[in-house]
Design a protein that fits this description.
Structural class: alpha+beta
Strand content: 5-15%
Radius of gyration: 21 Å
Largest sheet: 5 strands, mixed
Shape: globular
Helix content: 40-55%
Oligomer: single chain
Length: 415
């Protein structure tokens, strides 16, 4: 918007649409306006849904799985009926806990701690591919390969196919990468078929032991005295792909862009690397990579003084909750010392709290630390920044081109 024709959040909010192009560019104005005037709002977009923007309302709904169900779909528009159910997020407690408990051993901080050296080595390996040139795209050259290879590595999927598996997920949320327009991008259905074949291949000929990787574990574990069906295994693996590729990639891109635009923060992290854990948590709050998820009311219920009818879809806008001034002082500012930063909802809350929260912290922390160590003077080419088109689901960046003083390769490889 030009200075002569500024964005009008009130006008936008008459027909709020989280997939509209204006949403990604003006998210904070939009949510600030709704939170102040109409914190429990309705829109006619996509057949109509309720929009929640206050922290307390969103927490209440997210914790009440009996009244607000995930089983009617967690996105709007929803996934095509031909696509596989995602487990455990696509079902309600207590059934969801069975699948969640199956995955928990691989997402505990203690288990992920063993993968920290691999992550650090992989980031160094990726930086080696461009550090001598003095230029890079920190999204396509670093963030995307990192998040994709990590999921392939921890699950036991073939790492050499990281691009095929990840691009279908990224493309499915609306991102179109100009640097790969001349390449074939698999559809999500094609990736599902690829994944299904790999599951059967590993069922017949295991590549890893069950205590090493997620997929062989799923093929051996039992719930209710039986092994998981092929459909259940596929549903769990699909969710891991959905959550593992683009959200942390988005957090990395926005954090690096902020540190370029705000040199004092960059120098602070370079001089005081001990601040990194707090910085990671604050960036997760400030960026909020996943904009929000949907629930469906199972009965008439009042939220924030507004009656929500049974069957209405409700948008739990994590990004709005994370900028609620009732909980976070000066919410639009970044503060590495923010006392309550860990109360953010970037991973959701309640029974469906994101299992990958420690993965995101690990990948984001390693990426920021290594870039600041090895490319401390990086300069972003602002005209080359390309936001992801599909900002209604993930607040992403497709391209973040930078230049920097060339450096030496480390020679490190992630095995």
């Amino acid at each position: 918007m030009s200075a002569n024709c500024p964005f009008d959040p009130k006008a936008f909010n008459r027909h709020f649409n989280h997939h509209a192009p204006e949403f990604g560019a003006n998210r904070e104005q939009i949510f600030d306006d709704l939170r102040e005037r109409c914190p429990v709002a309705r829109t006619d977009a996509f057949g109509g849904y309720v929009v929640l923007t206050r922290y307390e309302d969103i927490v209440r709904v997210a914790r009440d799985d009996a009244t607000f169900s995930s089983e009617a779909g967690i996105t709007v528009p929803g996934l095509p009926t031909t696509e596989m159910l995602r487990l455990p997020i696509g079902i309600d407690p207590p059934r969801s806990f069975k699948y969640r408990n199956v995955l928990m051993p691989f997402f505990r901080a203690s288990w992920l701690k063993k993968l920290e050296p691999w992550v650090n080595d992989f980031v160094d390996e990726r930086i080696d591919t461009f550090i001598e040139s003095g230029k890079a795209d920190l999204q396509s050259d670093l963030a995307h390969p990192l998040t994709a290879n990590f999921i392939m590595h921890m699950t036991g999927l073939p790492r050499e196919q990281w691009w095929e598996y990840s691009m279908s997920v990224i493309a499915s949320i609306g991102a179109v990468r100009s640097d790969i327009d001349d390449k074939w991008i698999p559809t999500r259905a094609e990736t599902t078929a690829l994944l299904s074949e790999e599951i059967e291949r590993q069922r017949q000929s295991p590549r890893w032991s069950a205590d090493e990787k997620v997929l062989p574990y799923l093929l051996q574990v039992e719930i209710d005295g039986r092994k998981l069906t092929h459909e259940e295994t596929l549903g769990i693996m699909e969710l891991l792909l959905d959550g593992g590729f683009d959200t942390t990639m988005a957090a990395i891109g926005h954090s690096l862009l902020f540190l370029y635009r705000n040199h004092a923060y960059r120098e602070q992290l370079i001089d005081q690397p001990g601040l990194m854990p707090g910085a990671v948590e604050e960036f997760l709050r400030w960026v909020t990579p996943q904009q929000g998820l949907f629930r469906t009311a199972t009965k008439d219920v009042e939220v924030g003084g507004v009656m929500i009818k049974a069957g209405e879809r409700v948008f739990l806008a994590w990004s709005a909750a994370n900028r609620d001034p009732q909980l976070f002082a000066l919410p639009h500012e970044v503060n590495f010392d923010r006392p309550n930063r860990s109360r953010h909802l970037s991973f959701g809350i309640g029974a469906h709290l994101c299992l990958g929260l420690n993965v995101a912290r690990l990948e984001l922390g390693s990426s920021l630390s290594k870039v600041l160590q090895r490319l401390p003077d990086y300069v972003v080419n602002e005209t080359g920044i390309v936001p992801a088109p599909g900002l209604g689901i993930v607040n992403g960046i497709d391209h973040l081109p930078v230049t920097f003083t060339p450096g030496k390769r480390s020679g490190i490889r992630a095995l």
